Amino acid sequence: MKQHTALNPYLGIHAYGLGDLLHQHARDRPDMTAIIEGDVSFSFRQLDERVNRLAAVLRAKGVRKGDRILWLGQNSFRVLETLLASARLGAIVCPANWRWSASEIAFALDDFDPAIIFWQEKEIGAINREARSAWRPDSNWICHDGCDGEAAYEELLAAANPESTFDPVEPSTPLLAIYTAGFSGRPGAALLSHESILLVSWLSTMGQKVDEGSGYLVSGPMFHLGVLMGAMATFLCGGRCAFVSRVDAEEMLGMIDRYKLTHAFIAAPTIAQMRTLNKDGKYDVSSIFSDPQMSDYRMPLVMPADAPQMKHMGGYGQTEIGGLVNLLWFGGSGAGRASPFIQIMVGDEAGQEKPVGETGEILARGPLVMCGYWNRPEENARRVVNGWHRTNDLGKRLPDGSLIFVGPKTTMIKTGIENVYPAEVEACLRQHEGVADVCVIGVPDPTWDQNIKAVIVRKPGGDHAPEAFIEHCRRHLASYKKPKTVVFTDQIPRNAAGAIDREAVDAAFGGGGYPSAG
Length: 518
Hints:
Structural class: alpha/beta
CATH class of the domain at 312-408: Mainly Beta
Largest sheet: 6 strands, mixed
CATH architecture of the domain at 312-408: Roll
Shape: globular
CATH topology of the domain at 312-408: Luciferase, domain 3
Distance between the termini: 44 Å
Strand content: 15-25%
Strand order of the largest sheet: 2-1-10-9-11-12
Radius of gyration: 25 Å
CATH superfamily of the domain at 312-408: Luciferase, Domain 3
């Protein structure tokens, strides 16, 4: 006890968040460029002052630790400013999907209950106004891109005190909220802490070879963690973040040329557009690609060819554990090995580790894991088992320690006393030379509750009989996991996001009788 008391003066020294990192950048690299958008450019010293002003604005409007802030707009450097200002207050920011419908925005307003809503007039003003008029009349909305008769972001900053001081924030404090895919019929906002963001950003700087000379094109939507972590990795190292409001191939080419950017998030269809626009080499893209046609493009995360993550692509992750955190560039095969900041285990329903080679749920623990879902106490309780976070994904461990991602833990098939996960059987069938696509379903059985049926799209020219696929599973899986029947189809139904529409497959091929998934 005496020893602990003697250490008390140092306890507060360990409080460190993203707002503190910005203060340090302002000391270390005051005149280096921090952010770019169009013709707007701010140094780290200027960014530090603007963030301090914004934090003062938010505090004056009643924002306190734990309060929520919602961003209803496209990409902007002001998203980063809002995140950093919230970091100084201990508030939580959610960059929303700007493509949401009015009803989806209304859901987020009710669910997230933000103290402040930053909104955008250009392109999406009408839908934002519709959602606003249906919500609480006393809510506090700030227009970030300038709106007549509205509280305006830049005017509020100009009038604020740049010398305001703020109490230190504990690194375990939630800062970022990202809405993830629906569970139990509705999506939920995963809360990531300062500590998680700092550590995941550091992983990105190492894996993507980011340093203070790097320039990151923030061209993907910032409501996706992959894009946001690229920006945060660049900020972490003191590099330049260059923002475009939305994907525009020509604007992106111009930004790369003008600012000699080195990293980006660019989807394959946009690369195709950029190649067409740059067929005559009008734009110099040599800072990021080897030639005007961008022939060395390999994936949305664009980085130098000698970056570890480029040389060893692959990994496993999800928003709830900070993104991609089990990485092939850490060694091994499949999805590689865990980063130094997280534990990954393959476990059973009770949270006990399963033997090497057996499929189970991927479990995670450590500072990268989320602080829970906002306003979802029942789901939070369900997602924790024996001190570990349930990912709702299936995996298995190879003898060398590498992780294999099997697939999402979705519908469970109950055959006798055994539980079978379709993702595991589908992964096995996809290894067969004759399978182009597959969906495994459960069909009702009066004796065994359910039997397993595989719905297969054969590769062109393939003529394998059903028995060949059943035997393939018998060789690679426990016998009870093999399909009892196999049927063939020309196409597996999929939803707008590209995922298998399992309800449609069940309806077409007799599926049903599923137990409640745990």
